[in-house]
Amino acid sequence: WNSTYHMIERFLELRTIVNDIIIRYKNAPPMLTASELSILSSVLQVLRPIEAATKEVSADKYCTSSKIIPLIHCLLLKIKPLKLEESLAKELQSVILKEIDKRMGVIERVTSLAIATILDPRFKKMHFTDPIACSSAVAKVKEFMKATIQNEVVESDSSDHSDKPEDNFSFWDDHHKLVHKSWKTAKSDDAISDELSIYLRSPVGRLNENPLEIWNDLKIQLPKLHTIAYKYLTMVGT
C-alpha cells in the first residue's frame, strides 16, 4: 500500500510539473528555456498515446468490450519502446507502465473480454500476448458451440422418437440409436472445427467497420459462431 501511495503521489507531482511547463508554453512560448522545451517534448511523447486512446474510446458511438484488449496492447506498444533522455519523462513513463500493469495486467485472462476480442472480426487473436489466455478463450468458444449443437441433437432425437409407433419392436434399435448418435457427434465436431477454422483463417475486418454488421453478413456461413458473437459483442466496453 505504501509503495502504491508513493507512486500515485509522485505521479501527481510529475503532473503538476508538466502542467506548469505546458501552461507557460501556451501563455508565453519564448519564456521557455531549452531544457524545459526538451522536457516538454519528451513528456508529450509519453502522453500522446494515452490521449489517442482516450479519443478513440470517447469518439466511438458504441465502444464494444472487444476493443479493450487491443487498446491496452497498442498503448503498451507505443509507450514501452520509447527511448527518453529526460529523467522526468522516464519517470513518467515508468509510473504509467506500472499503473497499466496493475490495472490491466491480467486483462487477457478475463474470459468475457477475451472471447469478445476473438469473435470481433477486426481483431481475432492478433492482440493477445498471453498464448494460454488466447487458447483458453478459443476452447471456451468451442464448448459453447458444442453445447448448442448437442441441444439441437437432443431436440432432433426427441422429435424422431415421437413419430415412431410404440409397438414396432426391433432388437437392434439400440444399436441404430448409438450409430445415429455417434454420426451426429462426429458431424457436430466437424461443424465446430470447420466454422471456427474458417473464421480464424479469414482476413480481419477493417477498423472502421461495425463488428455486428460484419457478423450479420457471416450469419449464413457461420451460424453457430454468429449466435455466440452477438452475445459477447453487445457488451459495452466500460
Automatic annotation (TrEMBL):
Superkingdom per UniProt: Eukaryota
Record key words, sorted: Metal-binding, Nucleus, Zinc, Zinc-finger
Location relative to the cell: Nucleus
Keyword Metal-binding on entry: yes
A single cellular component GO annotation: nucleus
Keyword Zinc-finger recorded: yes
GO molecular function, a single term: zinc ion binding
Record-linked InterPro entries: RNaseH-like_sf, ZnF_BED_domain_contain
SUPFAM superfamilies, sorted: Ribonuclease H-like (SSF53098)
Name of protein: Zinc finger BED domain-containing protein 4
Species per Swiss-Prot/TrEMBL record: Ignelater luminosus
